[in-house]
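Data availability (excerpt). The following record was deposited with the supplementary files.
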Amino acid sequence: MIRIPLRPLARILDARQKGENPDAIERENKRLRHEDMQAMSRARAEGRLLVLGLFFFCAFAVVGARMGGLATSDPVEPRSAAYGSTISAARADIVDRNGNLLATNFDTHALYAQPLHMIDPQGAADGLVKIFPDLDHARLIKDFTGERKFLWIRKKISPEQMQAVHEIGDPGLLFAPREMRLYPNGSLAAHIMGGASFGKEGVAAAEVIGVAGVEKYFDDYLRDPANGATPLELSIDLTVQAASERILYGGMKLMNAKGATSVLMDVHTGEVISVVSLPDFDPNDRPRPATTGDQSDSPLFNRSVQGVYELGSVFKIFTAAQAVDLGLVNPSTIIDTKGPMRVGGFNIGEFRNKNYGKLSVSDIIVQSSNRGTGRMALEIGSKRQKSFLDAMGFFEPTPFEIVEAAGGRPLLPKRWTDLSSVTISYGHGLSSSPMHLAAGYSAIANGGRAVTPTLLKKTSVPKGPRIMSEEAARAARGMLRKVVSKGTASFGEVEGYAVGGKTGTADKPKPTGGYYDDKVIATFASMFPAHDPKYVLIVTLDEPVETSGDKPRRTAGWTAVPVAAEMIRRIAPLLGMRPTVEPQTLADITLTSSN
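Predicted structure:
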Protein backbone atom coordinates (compact mmCIF):
# COMPACT_ATOMS: atom_id res chain seq x y z
CA MET A 1 0.00 0.00 0.00
CA ILE A 2 1.34 3.49 -0.89
CA ARG A 3 1.09 5.66 2.19
CA ILE A 4 0.01 9.32 1.47
CA PRO A 5 1.88 11.94 3.61
CA LEU A 6 -0.33 13.56 6.24
CA ARG A 7 1.10 17.09 5.52
CA PRO A 8 2.06 17.22 1.85
CA LEU A 9 4.34 20.26 1.31
CA ALA A 10 2.80 21.35 -1.98
CA ARG A 11 -0.73 21.52 -0.54
CA ILE A 12 0.47 23.19 2.67
CA LEU A 13 2.18 25.99 0.71
CA ASP A 14 -0.83 26.39 -1.54
CA ALA A 15 -3.16 26.61 1.45
CA ARG A 16 -1.05 29.28 3.17
CA GLN A 17 -1.08 31.42 -0.02
CA LYS A 18 -4.85 31.17 -0.11
CA GLY A 19 -5.15 31.93 3.58
CA GLU A 20 -6.52 28.48 4.51
CA ASN A 21 -5.70 26.47 7.67
CA PRO A 22 -3.03 23.81 6.84
CA ASP A 23 -4.13 21.64 9.84
CA ALA A 24 -7.38 20.82 8.04
CA ILE A 25 -5.39 19.10 5.33
CA GLU A 26 -3.66 16.88 7.94
CA ARG A 27 -6.97 15.96 9.60
CA GLU A 28 -8.51 15.02 6.26
CA ASN A 29 -5.54 12.82 5.33
CA LYS A 30 -5.69 11.04 8.72
CA ARG A 31 -9.37 10.33 8.15
CA LEU A 32 -8.74 8.85 4.72
CA ARG A 33 -5.85 6.74 5.99
CA HIS A 34 -7.98 5.32 8.81
CA GLU A 35 -10.78 4.48 6.39
CA ASP A 36 -8.31 2.52 4.18
CA MET A 37 -6.93 0.63 7.18
CA GLN A 38 -10.44 -0.30 8.34
CA ALA A 39 -11.36 -1.58 4.86
CA MET A 40 -8.27 -3.79 4.71
CA SER A 41 -8.88 -5.22 8.20
CA ARG A 42 -12.49 -5.94 7.35
CA ALA A 43 -11.52 -7.78 4.11
CA ARG A 44 -8.90 -9.83 6.00
CA ALA A 45 -11.43 -10.82 8.70
CA GLU A 46 -14.06 -11.76 6.14
CA GLY A 47 -11.53 -14.05 4.36
CA ARG A 48 -10.60 -15.78 7.58
CA LEU A 49 -14.24 -16.33 8.49
CA LEU A 50 -14.89 -17.83 5.04
CA VAL A 51 -11.99 -20.30 5.41
CA LEU A 52 -13.11 -21.28 8.93
CA GLY A 53 -16.65 -21.73 7.68
CA LEU A 54 -15.50 -24.03 4.89
CA PHE A 55 -13.45 -26.08 7.38
CA PHE A 56 -16.42 -26.56 9.71
CA PHE A 57 -18.66 -27.42 6.76
CA CYS A 58 -16.26 -30.19 5.59
CA ALA A 59 -15.85 -31.54 9.12
CA PHE A 60 -19.61 -31.75 9.67
CA ALA A 61 -20.05 -33.35 6.22
CA VAL A 62 -17.51 -36.10 7.06
CA VAL A 63 -19.08 -36.74 10.46
CA GLY A 64 -22.53 -36.85 8.92
CA ALA A 65 -21.48 -39.27 6.19
CA ARG A 66 -19.83 -41.57 8.76
CA MET A 67 -22.92 -41.50 10.97
CA GLY A 68 -25.09 -42.29 7.98
CA GLY A 69 -22.81 -45.23 7.04
CA LEU A 70 -22.93 -46.62 10.57
CA ALA A 71 -26.69 -46.26 10.68
CA THR A 72 -27.15 -48.31 7.51
CA SER A 73 -24.46 -51.01 8.11
CA ASP A 74 -24.74 -54.29 10.03
CA PRO A 75 -23.45 -54.24 13.61
CA VAL A 76 -20.10 -56.00 14.15
CA GLU A 77 -18.10 -56.87 17.21
CA PRO A 78 -15.09 -54.70 18.02
CA ARG A 79 -11.80 -56.23 16.93
CA SER A 80 -8.42 -56.00 18.52
CA ALA A 81 -5.90 -54.43 16.19
CA ALA A 82 -2.28 -55.54 16.06
CA TYR A 83 0.56 -54.94 13.67
CA GLY A 84 1.95 -58.02 11.90
CA SER A 85 1.78 -60.06 8.75
CA THR A 86 -1.59 -60.52 7.07
CA ILE A 87 -3.27 -63.89 7.68
CA SER A 88 -4.62 -65.43 4.47
CA ALA A 89 -7.60 -67.72 5.07
CA ALA A 90 -8.36 -68.37 1.40
CA ARG A 91 -8.19 -72.00 0.28
CA ALA A 92 -9.17 -73.54 -3.05
CA ASP A 93 -12.03 -76.04 -3.30
CA ILE A 94 -11.54 -79.75 -4.03
CA VAL A 95 -13.86 -81.53 -6.48
CA ASP A 96 -14.19 -85.03 -7.93
CA ARG A 97 -13.72 -85.92 -11.60
CA ASN A 98 -17.28 -84.77 -12.38
CA GLY A 99 -17.04 -81.46 -10.54
CA ASN A 100 -18.89 -82.60 -7.40
CA LEU A 101 -17.76 -80.70 -4.33
CA LEU A 102 -15.55 -82.59 -1.87
CA ALA A 103 -14.11 -79.75 0.24
CA THR A 104 -14.77 -76.03 0.48
CA ASN A 105 -14.50 -73.09 2.88
CA PHE A 106 -17.34 -72.07 5.19
CA ASP A 107 -17.81 -68.77 7.04
CA THR A 108 -18.09 -69.23 10.79
CA HIS A 109 -16.89 -67.61 14.02
CA ALA A 110 -14.61 -68.34 16.92
CA LEU A 111 -15.47 -67.34 20.48
CA TYR A 112 -13.00 -65.56 22.75
CA ALA A 113 -13.16 -63.60 25.99
CA GLN A 114 -11.63 -60.39 27.34
CA PRO A 115 -12.13 -60.80 31.12
CA LEU A 116 -11.24 -57.15 31.87
CA HIS A 117 -14.35 -56.06 29.97
CA MET A 118 -16.71 -58.53 31.65
CA ILE A 119 -19.59 -57.25 33.72
CA ASP A 120 -20.70 -60.55 35.27
CA PRO A 121 -17.98 -63.26 35.05
CA GLN A 122 -20.03 -65.71 37.10
CA GLY A 123 -23.10 -65.31 34.91
CA ALA A 124 -21.03 -65.55 31.72
CA ALA A 125 -19.44 -68.82 32.91
CA ASP A 126 -22.86 -70.25 33.86
CA GLY A 127 -24.28 -69.37 30.45
CA LEU A 128 -21.32 -70.76 28.50
CA VAL A 129 -21.47 -74.11 30.29
CA LYS A 130 -25.13 -74.43 29.32
CA ILE A 131 -24.24 -73.82 25.66
CA PHE A 132 -21.03 -75.89 25.69
CA PRO A 133 -21.52 -78.67 28.30
CA ASP A 134 -17.95 -79.97 27.87
CA LEU A 135 -16.43 -76.72 29.23
CA ASP A 136 -14.95 -76.76 32.73
CA HIS A 137 -17.04 -74.37 34.83
CA ALA A 138 -14.46 -73.96 37.58
CA ARG A 139 -11.74 -73.29 35.03
CA LEU A 140 -13.85 -70.59 33.35
CA ILE A 141 -14.47 -68.83 36.69
CA LYS A 142 -10.73 -68.91 37.41
CA ASP A 143 -9.87 -67.47 33.99
CA PHE A 144 -12.60 -64.82 34.05
CA THR A 145 -11.71 -63.54 37.52
CA GLY A 146 -7.93 -63.84 37.23
CA GLU A 147 -5.37 -61.65 35.55
CA ARG A 148 -5.78 -62.98 32.03
CA LYS A 149 -6.61 -60.34 29.44
CA PHE A 150 -7.52 -62.69 26.58
CA LEU A 151 -8.45 -66.37 26.11
CA TRP A 152 -9.95 -68.51 23.37
CA ILE A 153 -13.07 -70.39 24.38
CA ARG A 154 -14.07 -72.09 21.12
CA LYS A 155 -12.21 -72.11 17.78
CA LYS A 156 -15.41 -72.93 15.84
CA ILE A 157 -19.03 -72.32 16.79
CA SER A 158 -22.31 -72.79 14.92
CA PRO A 159 -24.73 -69.92 14.16
CA GLU A 160 -27.10 -71.29 16.82
CA GLN A 161 -24.33 -71.30 19.42
CA MET A 162 -23.31 -67.79 18.39
CA GLN A 163 -26.87 -66.55 18.93
CA ALA A 164 -27.03 -68.22 22.33
CA VAL A 165 -23.79 -66.51 23.38
CA HIS A 166 -25.20 -63.20 22.13
CA GLU A 167 -28.14 -63.68 24.48
CA ILE A 168 -25.79 -63.92 27.46
CA GLY A 169 -25.15 -60.26 26.74
CA ASP A 170 -21.77 -59.86 28.37
CA PRO A 171 -19.51 -57.37 26.53
CA GLY A 172 -16.43 -59.43 27.43
CA LEU A 173 -17.56 -62.31 25.18
CA LEU A 174 -16.55 -61.57 21.60
CA PHE A 175 -16.57 -63.28 18.21
CA ALA A 176 -13.75 -63.64 15.69
CA PRO A 177 -14.62 -64.24 12.01
CA ARG A 178 -13.29 -67.49 10.59
CA GLU A 179 -13.20 -69.52 7.39
CA MET A 180 -13.28 -73.17 8.34
CA ARG A 181 -12.80 -76.17 6.03
CA LEU A 182 -16.06 -77.97 5.33
CA TYR A 183 -16.48 -81.50 3.95
CA PRO A 184 -20.12 -81.61 2.84
CA ASN A 185 -20.08 -85.40 2.36
CA GLY A 186 -19.04 -86.18 5.92
CA SER A 187 -16.98 -89.35 6.23
CA LEU A 188 -17.22 -90.12 2.51
CA ALA A 189 -13.68 -90.28 1.08
CA ALA A 190 -12.33 -89.37 4.52
CA HIS A 191 -8.89 -90.93 4.04
CA ILE A 192 -8.49 -89.15 0.71
CA MET A 193 -9.41 -85.74 2.12
CA GLY A 194 -7.46 -86.21 5.34
CA GLY A 195 -8.59 -83.00 7.01
CA ALA A 196 -7.56 -79.43 7.79
CA SER A 197 -7.02 -77.29 10.85
CA PHE A 198 -6.10 -73.76 11.85
CA GLY A 199 -2.52 -72.59 11.62
CA LYS A 200 -1.60 -68.98 12.39
CA GLU A 201 -4.54 -67.31 14.18
CA GLY A 202 -5.72 -63.83 15.02
CA VAL A 203 -9.00 -62.30 16.10
CA ALA A 204 -9.66 -61.05 12.56
CA ALA A 205 -8.75 -64.24 10.62
CA ALA A 206 -7.17 -67.67 10.88
CA GLU A 207 -4.96 -69.59 8.47
CA VAL A 208 -6.44 -72.89 7.22
CA ILE A 209 -3.80 -75.60 6.71
CA GLY A 210 -4.00 -79.25 5.65
CA VAL A 211 -3.08 -81.87 8.25
CA ALA A 212 -3.41 -85.14 6.31
CA GLY A 213 -4.43 -86.72 3.01
CA VAL A 214 -4.82 -84.61 -0.10
CA GLU A 215 -5.24 -81.46 2.00
CA LYS A 216 -1.70 -81.85 3.33
CA TYR A 217 -0.09 -83.10 0.10
CA PHE A 218 -1.43 -80.18 -1.98
CA ASP A 219 -1.32 -77.62 0.83
CA ASP A 220 0.82 -75.13 -1.10
CA TYR A 221 -1.45 -75.28 -4.15
CA LEU A 222 -4.64 -74.97 -2.13
CA ARG A 223 -3.34 -72.00 -0.11
CA ASP A 224 -2.03 -70.10 -3.14
CA PRO A 225 -4.37 -67.10 -3.71
CA ALA A 226 -3.76 -67.45 -7.45
CA ASN A 227 -5.59 -70.80 -7.36
CA GLY A 228 -8.54 -69.60 -5.32
CA ALA A 229 -10.94 -69.78 -8.25
CA THR A 230 -9.47 -73.02 -9.66
CA PRO A 231 -10.52 -76.10 -7.67
CA LEU A 232 -8.25 -79.10 -7.30
CA GLU A 233 -9.78 -81.80 -9.52
CA LEU A 234 -9.32 -85.38 -8.29
CA SER A 235 -9.67 -88.64 -10.19
CA ILE A 236 -12.21 -90.18 -7.84
CA ASP A 237 -15.87 -90.52 -8.75
CA LEU A 238 -18.02 -89.52 -5.77
CA THR A 239 -20.90 -91.80 -6.75
CA VAL A 240 -18.63 -94.82 -7.18
CA GLN A 241 -16.85 -93.92 -3.94
CA ALA A 242 -20.14 -93.85 -2.03
CA ALA A 243 -21.26 -97.21 -3.43
CA SER A 244 -17.85 -98.78 -2.73
CA GLU A 245 -17.82 -97.60 0.87
CA ARG A 246 -21.34 -98.84 1.51
CA ILE A 247 -20.71 -102.29 0.06
CA LEU A 248 -17.30 -102.72 1.65
CA TYR A 249 -18.67 -101.73 5.06
CA GLY A 250 -21.49 -104.26 4.72
CA GLY A 251 -19.01 -106.94 3.59
CA MET A 252 -16.65 -106.18 6.48
CA LYS A 253 -19.48 -106.62 8.99
CA LEU A 254 -20.84 -109.71 7.26
CA MET A 255 -17.40 -111.34 7.26
CA ASN A 256 -16.67 -110.24 10.87
CA ALA A 257 -13.47 -108.46 9.79
CA LYS A 258 -11.79 -105.83 11.96
CA GLY A 259 -10.89 -103.70 8.95
CA ALA A 260 -11.10 -103.54 5.17
CA THR A 261 -9.78 -101.64 2.18
CA SER A 262 -10.48 -101.46 -1.54
CA VAL A 263 -8.81 -99.78 -4.52
CA LEU A 264 -10.47 -99.24 -7.91
CA MET A 265 -7.98 -98.13 -10.58
CA ASP A 266 -8.16 -97.30 -14.29
CA VAL A 267 -5.69 -99.76 -15.82
CA HIS A 268 -4.55 -97.39 -18.59
CA THR A 269 -4.11 -94.06 -16.77
CA GLY A 270 -3.47 -95.21 -13.21
CA GLU A 271 -6.31 -92.93 -12.03
CA VAL A 272 -7.79 -94.15 -8.75
CA ILE A 273 -11.56 -93.97 -9.15
CA SER A 274 -12.26 -94.94 -5.56
CA VAL A 275 -10.19 -95.92 -2.55
CA VAL A 276 -11.75 -97.01 0.74
CA SER A 277 -10.24 -97.73 4.13
CA LEU A 278 -12.38 -98.92 7.05
CA PRO A 279 -12.90 -98.01 9.81
CA ASP A 280 -12.97 -94.36 8.81
CA PHE A 281 -13.77 -90.97 10.38
CA ASP A 282 -15.40 -87.62 9.69
CA PRO A 283 -12.78 -85.07 8.54
CA ASN A 284 -15.07 -82.30 9.83
CA ASP A 285 -14.30 -83.62 13.32
CA ARG A 286 -10.99 -85.42 12.85
CA PRO A 287 -10.06 -87.61 15.86
CA ARG A 288 -6.70 -87.36 17.59
CA PRO A 289 -3.97 -89.83 16.59
CA ALA A 290 -3.64 -92.89 18.79
CA THR A 291 -0.72 -92.69 21.21
CA THR A 292 -0.95 -96.25 22.51
CA GLY A 293 -1.82 -99.67 21.15
CA ASP A 294 -1.78 -100.88 17.56
CA GLN A 295 -1.84 -97.93 15.15
CA SER A 296 -3.66 -100.04 12.57
CA ASP A 297 -6.68 -100.11 14.90
CA SER A 298 -7.04 -96.32 14.63
CA PRO A 299 -9.64 -94.98 12.18
CA LEU A 300 -6.92 -92.63 10.91
CA PHE A 301 -4.88 -95.60 9.62
CA ASN A 302 -5.16 -95.78 5.83
CA ARG A 303 -5.03 -99.47 4.98
CA SER A 304 -4.84 -98.89 1.23
CA VAL A 305 -1.36 -97.31 1.40
CA GLN A 306 -0.13 -97.71 4.98
CA GLY A 307 -1.30 -101.30 5.36
CA VAL A 308 1.85 -103.18 4.35
CA TYR A 309 1.01 -106.90 4.35
CA GLU A 310 2.15 -110.21 2.97
CA LEU A 311 -0.66 -110.52 0.44
CA GLY A 312 -0.35 -114.22 -0.34
CA SER A 313 -1.24 -116.02 -3.54
CA VAL A 314 -2.24 -112.89 -5.47
CA PHE A 315 1.50 -112.67 -6.26
CA LYS A 316 1.51 -115.96 -8.15
CA ILE A 317 0.30 -114.40 -11.37
CA PHE A 318 3.40 -112.16 -11.45
CA THR A 319 5.63 -115.24 -11.40
CA ALA A 320 3.64 -116.93 -14.16
CA ALA A 321 3.55 -113.77 -16.31
CA GLN A 322 7.31 -113.28 -16.01
CA ALA A 323 8.02 -116.92 -16.80
CA VAL A 324 5.88 -116.65 -19.95
CA ASP A 325 7.51 -113.34 -20.87
CA LEU A 326 11.00 -114.90 -20.58
CA GLY A 327 9.93 -117.81 -22.77
CA LEU A 328 10.50 -120.35 -19.99
CA VAL A 329 6.91 -121.63 -20.12
CA ASN A 330 3.58 -121.10 -21.80
CA PRO A 331 0.12 -121.57 -20.26
CA SER A 332 0.10 -125.24 -21.34
CA THR A 333 3.56 -126.17 -20.04
CA ILE A 334 3.37 -129.06 -17.56
CA ILE A 335 5.16 -128.70 -14.22
CA ASP A 336 5.41 -131.41 -11.58
CA THR A 337 4.12 -130.01 -8.28
CA LYS A 338 4.51 -133.21 -6.25
CA GLY A 339 6.51 -133.04 -3.04
CA PRO A 340 8.71 -133.07 -1.27
CA MET A 341 10.23 -129.74 -2.26
CA ARG A 342 13.00 -128.35 -0.08
CA VAL A 343 14.69 -125.01 -0.68
CA GLY A 344 17.35 -123.60 1.61
CA GLY A 345 16.64 -126.29 4.15
CA PHE A 346 12.92 -125.51 4.34
CA ASN A 347 10.03 -127.62 3.08
CA ILE A 348 7.69 -125.95 0.58
CA GLY A 349 4.15 -127.22 1.18
CA GLU A 350 0.71 -126.72 -0.30
CA PHE A 351 -2.45 -125.35 1.30
CA ARG A 352 -3.87 -128.05 3.58
CA ASN A 353 -1.07 -130.41 2.45
CA LYS A 354 -2.65 -131.02 -0.95
CA ASN A 355 -0.75 -132.85 -3.66
CA TYR A 356 -1.77 -131.67 -7.12
CA GLY A 357 0.70 -133.76 -9.12
CA LYS A 358 1.47 -132.59 -12.65
CA LEU A 359 -0.25 -129.35 -13.61
CA SER A 360 -0.10 -126.95 -16.52
CA VAL A 361 1.03 -123.42 -15.75
CA SER A 362 -2.54 -122.25 -16.18
CA ASP A 363 -3.80 -124.89 -13.71
CA ILE A 364 -1.06 -123.96 -11.23
CA ILE A 365 -2.64 -120.51 -11.05
CA VAL A 366 -6.19 -121.92 -11.00
CA GLN A 367 -5.36 -124.43 -8.22
CA SER A 368 -3.01 -121.93 -6.50
CA SER A 369 -0.08 -124.34 -6.19
CA ASN A 370 2.83 -123.08 -4.07
CA ARG A 371 5.25 -125.70 -5.38
CA GLY A 372 4.38 -125.08 -9.03
CA THR A 373 4.87 -121.33 -8.60
CA GLY A 374 8.06 -121.87 -6.63
CA ARG A 375 9.58 -124.06 -9.36
CA MET A 376 8.88 -121.34 -11.94
CA ALA A 377 10.54 -118.80 -9.63
CA LEU A 378 13.68 -120.94 -9.41
CA GLU A 379 13.81 -121.05 -13.21
CA ILE A 380 13.46 -117.28 -13.36
CA GLY A 381 16.18 -116.69 -10.77
CA SER A 382 16.37 -114.15 -7.98
CA LYS A 383 18.13 -111.45 -10.03
CA ARG A 384 15.49 -111.37 -12.77
CA GLN A 385 12.67 -111.68 -10.23
CA LYS A 386 13.95 -108.67 -8.30
CA SER A 387 14.28 -106.60 -11.47
CA PHE A 388 10.72 -107.49 -12.54
CA LEU A 389 9.12 -106.63 -9.19
CA ASP A 390 11.16 -103.44 -8.96
CA ALA A 391 9.88 -102.35 -12.39
CA MET A 392 6.35 -102.91 -11.11
CA GLY A 393 6.98 -100.57 -8.18
CA PHE A 394 7.15 -103.06 -5.30
CA PHE A 395 10.42 -101.72 -3.90
CA GLU A 396 9.36 -98.15 -3.05
CA PRO A 397 6.33 -96.42 -1.53
CA THR A 398 3.68 -95.62 -4.13
CA PRO A 399 3.85 -92.00 -5.39
CA PHE A 400 0.17 -91.64 -4.53
CA GLU A 401 -0.80 -88.01 -3.80
CA ILE A 402 -1.62 -88.28 -0.10
CA VAL A 403 0.98 -87.80 2.61
CA GLU A 404 0.29 -91.20 4.18
CA ALA A 405 1.50 -93.02 1.06
CA ALA A 406 5.13 -92.16 1.86
CA GLY A 407 4.85 -94.34 4.99
CA GLY A 408 3.82 -97.43 3.02
CA ARG A 409 7.33 -98.68 2.26
CA PRO A 410 7.40 -102.37 1.23
CA LEU A 411 9.27 -104.79 3.48
CA LEU A 412 11.89 -106.71 1.51
CA PRO A 413 14.16 -109.60 2.54
CA LYS A 414 17.62 -108.56 3.72
CA ARG A 415 19.16 -111.29 1.56
CA TRP A 416 17.36 -112.34 -1.61
CA THR A 417 18.14 -116.05 -1.61
CA ASP A 418 16.55 -118.90 -3.57
CA LEU A 419 14.25 -119.42 -0.60
CA SER A 420 13.24 -115.75 -0.79
CA SER A 421 12.50 -116.11 -4.51
CA VAL A 422 10.28 -119.14 -3.87
CA THR A 423 8.31 -117.65 -0.96
CA ILE A 424 7.91 -114.28 -2.68
CA SER A 425 6.61 -116.05 -5.77
CA TYR A 426 3.53 -117.05 -3.79
CA GLY A 427 3.21 -113.84 -1.74
CA HIS A 428 5.27 -114.41 1.40
CA GLY A 429 8.56 -112.80 2.38
CA LEU A 430 7.67 -109.47 0.72
CA SER A 431 5.09 -107.13 2.24
CA SER A 432 3.39 -104.45 0.20
CA SER A 433 0.21 -102.39 0.20
CA PRO A 434 -3.04 -102.95 -1.71
CA MET A 435 -2.15 -99.83 -3.75
CA HIS A 436 1.09 -101.53 -4.91
CA LEU A 437 -0.95 -104.58 -5.86
CA ALA A 438 -3.44 -102.50 -7.87
CA ALA A 439 -0.60 -100.98 -9.89
CA GLY A 440 0.92 -104.43 -10.52
CA TYR A 441 -2.35 -105.93 -11.74
CA SER A 442 -2.98 -102.87 -13.92
CA ALA A 443 0.26 -103.63 -15.77
CA ILE A 444 -1.10 -107.09 -16.62
CA ALA A 445 -4.50 -105.67 -17.52
CA ASN A 446 -3.27 -102.96 -19.90
CA GLY A 447 -0.96 -105.17 -21.95
CA GLY A 448 2.30 -105.02 -20.02
CA ARG A 449 3.04 -101.36 -19.25
CA ALA A 450 3.91 -100.04 -15.78
CA VAL A 451 1.28 -97.86 -14.13
CA THR A 452 1.74 -95.08 -11.57
CA PRO A 453 -1.25 -94.67 -9.22
CA THR A 454 -2.56 -91.12 -9.19
CA LEU A 455 -5.31 -89.21 -7.46
CA LEU A 456 -5.43 -86.47 -10.11
CA LYS A 457 -7.78 -86.52 -13.07
CA LYS A 458 -5.88 -87.14 -16.31
CA THR A 459 -6.75 -85.46 -19.60
CA SER A 460 -4.50 -87.79 -21.60
CA VAL A 461 -3.40 -91.41 -21.36
CA PRO A 462 0.30 -91.57 -20.41
CA LYS A 463 2.21 -94.68 -21.50
CA GLY A 464 4.45 -96.20 -18.88
CA PRO A 465 7.55 -98.26 -19.63
CA ARG A 466 6.94 -101.78 -20.91
CA ILE A 467 7.71 -104.44 -18.31
CA MET A 468 6.29 -107.50 -20.09
CA SER A 469 5.17 -108.39 -23.59
CA GLU A 470 1.56 -108.12 -24.69
CA GLU A 471 1.55 -111.89 -25.23
CA ALA A 472 2.61 -112.55 -21.65
CA ALA A 473 0.02 -110.11 -20.30
CA ARG A 474 -2.69 -111.70 -22.45
CA ALA A 475 -1.73 -115.16 -21.22
CA ALA A 476 -1.85 -113.94 -17.59
CA ARG A 477 -5.31 -112.47 -18.11
CA GLY A 478 -6.51 -115.78 -19.49
CA MET A 479 -5.24 -117.58 -16.38
CA LEU A 480 -6.93 -115.04 -14.09
CA ARG A 481 -10.21 -115.51 -15.94
CA LYS A 482 -10.01 -119.27 -15.32
CA VAL A 483 -9.46 -118.69 -11.59
CA VAL A 484 -12.92 -117.10 -11.48
CA SER A 485 -14.68 -119.37 -13.97
CA LYS A 486 -13.49 -122.65 -12.46
CA GLY A 487 -11.00 -122.01 -9.64
CA THR A 488 -10.75 -120.62 -6.12
CA ALA A 489 -12.61 -117.39 -6.96
CA SER A 490 -15.82 -118.90 -8.33
CA PHE A 491 -17.91 -116.61 -6.10
CA GLY A 492 -16.42 -113.69 -8.00
CA GLU A 493 -18.37 -114.34 -11.20
CA VAL A 494 -20.52 -111.36 -12.21
CA GLU A 495 -22.72 -112.07 -15.21
CA GLY A 496 -21.96 -109.79 -18.12
CA TYR A 497 -18.64 -108.47 -16.83
CA ALA A 498 -16.24 -111.43 -17.26
CA VAL A 499 -14.28 -110.93 -14.05
CA GLY A 500 -10.73 -112.26 -13.82
CA GLY A 501 -8.73 -112.34 -10.62
CA LYS A 502 -6.69 -114.18 -8.04
CA THR A 503 -7.28 -114.94 -4.39
CA GLY A 504 -4.70 -114.55 -1.67
CA THR A 505 -4.90 -115.68 1.95
CA ALA A 506 -1.87 -114.86 4.10
CA ASP A 507 -1.37 -115.66 7.76
CA LYS A 508 -1.23 -112.49 9.81
CA PRO A 509 2.10 -111.88 11.57
CA LYS A 510 2.28 -111.34 15.32
CA PRO A 511 3.87 -108.14 16.63
CA THR A 512 6.31 -110.27 18.61
CA GLY A 513 7.23 -112.54 15.67
CA GLY A 514 5.68 -115.60 14.07
CA TYR A 515 2.15 -115.89 12.72
CA TYR A 516 -1.32 -116.28 14.18
CA ASP A 517 -3.02 -119.62 13.64
CA ASP A 518 -6.50 -118.11 13.29
CA LYS A 519 -5.95 -114.65 11.81
CA VAL A 520 -5.40 -113.91 8.12
CA ILE A 521 -5.26 -111.13 5.57
CA ALA A 522 -7.65 -112.11 2.76
CA THR A 523 -7.29 -110.41 -0.65
CA PHE A 524 -8.99 -110.67 -4.00
CA ALA A 525 -7.22 -108.89 -6.87
CA SER A 526 -9.52 -108.63 -9.87
CA MET A 527 -9.95 -106.96 -13.25
CA PHE A 528 -12.99 -106.57 -15.47
CA PRO A 529 -13.83 -107.40 -18.16
CA ALA A 530 -10.98 -109.93 -18.34
CA HIS A 531 -10.85 -110.02 -22.17
CA ASP A 532 -10.48 -106.20 -22.40
CA PRO A 533 -9.86 -104.86 -18.90
CA LYS A 534 -10.84 -101.32 -18.03
CA TYR A 535 -10.48 -101.42 -14.25
CA VAL A 536 -8.64 -103.28 -11.53
CA LEU A 537 -10.31 -103.80 -8.16
CA ILE A 538 -8.43 -104.88 -5.03
CA VAL A 539 -10.40 -105.92 -1.93
CA THR A 540 -8.55 -106.79 1.29
CA LEU A 541 -10.15 -107.87 4.57
CA ASP A 542 -8.28 -107.87 7.89
CA GLU A 543 -9.02 -110.95 10.04
CA PRO A 544 -12.23 -112.02 8.25
CA VAL A 545 -14.23 -115.05 9.45
CA GLU A 546 -17.17 -116.42 7.46
CA THR A 547 -19.42 -118.30 9.90
CA SER A 548 -22.40 -119.49 7.87
CA GLY A 549 -21.16 -123.11 7.73
CA ASP A 550 -20.33 -125.72 10.33
CA LYS A 551 -16.75 -124.45 10.60
CA PRO A 552 -15.38 -120.92 10.38
CA ARG A 553 -13.89 -120.11 6.97
CA ARG A 554 -11.20 -117.48 6.54
CA THR A 555 -9.85 -117.95 3.01
CA ALA A 556 -10.26 -115.18 0.45
CA GLY A 557 -12.51 -117.34 -1.74
CA TRP A 558 -15.12 -117.33 1.02
CA THR A 559 -14.59 -113.80 2.34
CA ALA A 560 -12.99 -111.20 0.02
CA VAL A 561 -14.28 -112.65 -3.27
CA PRO A 562 -18.05 -112.32 -2.59
CA VAL A 563 -17.55 -108.76 -1.37
CA ALA A 564 -15.59 -107.82 -4.50
CA ALA A 565 -18.21 -109.44 -6.73
CA GLU A 566 -20.97 -107.39 -5.15
CA MET A 567 -18.90 -104.24 -5.59
CA ILE A 568 -18.35 -104.95 -9.29
CA ARG A 569 -22.04 -105.72 -9.73
CA ARG A 570 -22.95 -102.34 -8.26
CA ILE A 571 -20.24 -100.01 -9.54
CA ALA A 572 -19.78 -101.30 -13.12
CA PRO A 573 -23.06 -99.66 -14.29
CA LEU A 574 -22.04 -96.45 -12.45
CA LEU A 575 -18.85 -96.48 -14.53
CA GLY A 576 -20.91 -96.59 -17.72
CA MET A 577 -20.15 -100.25 -18.44
CA ARG A 578 -22.91 -102.35 -19.96
CA PRO A 579 -23.08 -106.10 -19.45
CA THR A 580 -21.70 -107.90 -22.50
CA VAL A 581 -21.42 -111.42 -23.76
CA GLU A 582 -17.90 -112.71 -23.26
CA PRO A 583 -16.26 -113.52 -26.61
CA GLN A 584 -15.76 -117.24 -27.15
CA THR A 585 -13.69 -119.27 -29.63
CA LEU A 586 -16.15 -120.97 -31.96
CA ALA A 587 -15.65 -124.57 -33.05
CA ASP A 588 -15.03 -125.22 -36.74
CA ILE A 589 -18.35 -125.06 -38.61
CA THR A 590 -18.90 -126.29 -42.15
CA LEU A 591 -21.58 -124.59 -44.18
CA THR A 592 -23.59 -127.32 -45.91
CA SER A 593 -26.56 -125.32 -47.14
CA SER A 594 -27.58 -121.76 -47.63
CA ASN A 595 -31.23 -122.60 -46.96
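Summary of structural features: The radius of gyration is 41 Å.
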